[in-house]
Amino acid sequence: MKRRTGPNVGALTAVLLGMLMTWLYLKATPYPAEIDHGPAPEALANPYLAAEHFLRKQGLSVSHANSLDILPGLEPNHHSLLLLGDRYNMTPRQIDQVLNWTRAGGRLLFVAQSLWDDRTGQSNDLLLDRVQLQQSLSKDLKDPLPDTPDAPYPELTKLYLENEDAPAYAGFDTAFHLEDPKNLVQAWANSGKGTHMMQLNHGLGSIIVVTDADLWKNPAIDQYDNAWLLWYLTVDTAVTLVFDTEHDGLLTLLLRHFPQALVALAALIGLACWHFGVRHGPLLAPRARARRQLQEHLRASADFMLRHNGQDSLLLALRHDILRRVRHRHPGYEQLDVAEQWLVLARLSGQPTRVIGQAMSPRPKQRLSSAEFSRQVARLQTLRNAL
Fold it and tell me: What is the pTM of this model?
């Protein structure tokens, strides 16, 4: 009986598991579920990615760039240039290039980036000033616009077209308002708070100024008639969008992916600084002032002159000192020949002529030995002291 208990327990367990699985299968109800993983990396890197895809679906050729370096290669005819990024670093030369490109037949769209300053008579947006338009805050308007706040959808910008009963609605930022003090604009679009888009001719081309381009970014491109308006402004042209794509720097990427390595590197640098900054061995005690005697200074000065100026400089200095003393005691010494000069020196110093000749004779160019140099210095010093 005991040997048959194990197989019976196993069979009973298998039956129970089978019944449980059957019950779960009958009770479980499958259902679809969507998991939002957030924007794709391409959408995070390009805020106008959805706008590019939409325009391509309409049959337009679309590209984007990070700077205006591509401008010389763009054919202005049937081409739209959209300046949607930061332009505060735009130079006057680049502004001239953009306007000349537009004058030749290009279609230019850019975002007004600065408010008009009545005190200085300009704004910080050089391109906006060149087209003679001004931007202000909608709340500062004094005269009401034709599209009053009582009109339907006052927060939306309305674009009226010929042969259309209803306007197109766009989601511009209504906090800003565009003004045309020179009456140059041929078309515009208003909301209940201000004017947010203006279009004017420029040579063979045209210029479109808007208060903002957020309505064409990925989160808002599908709202209202935002996508249609972008297509309408660029229809029948190739489109180039110019904006800065921000990329994470090296330090940001290292902090994100290798924080432990950075901590280890910082610790290693700290240990290296500590190692090289620690003093090794005892401090040398300063020498006592009693050791610094005049004789030591003189010897050190002579050693310095000998190392840097050579033997000839020291010997020449002694000879000049001898000549100065003998001229003082025997006027006209310079006019005598060498033999007579030596006789005068022998008479005045009491030294033999042989010693005089050894001391005053020119020395060969080669370096003297230490012993010979010491003997020569001794001869000259003896002769000088005797005078």
Answer: 0.56
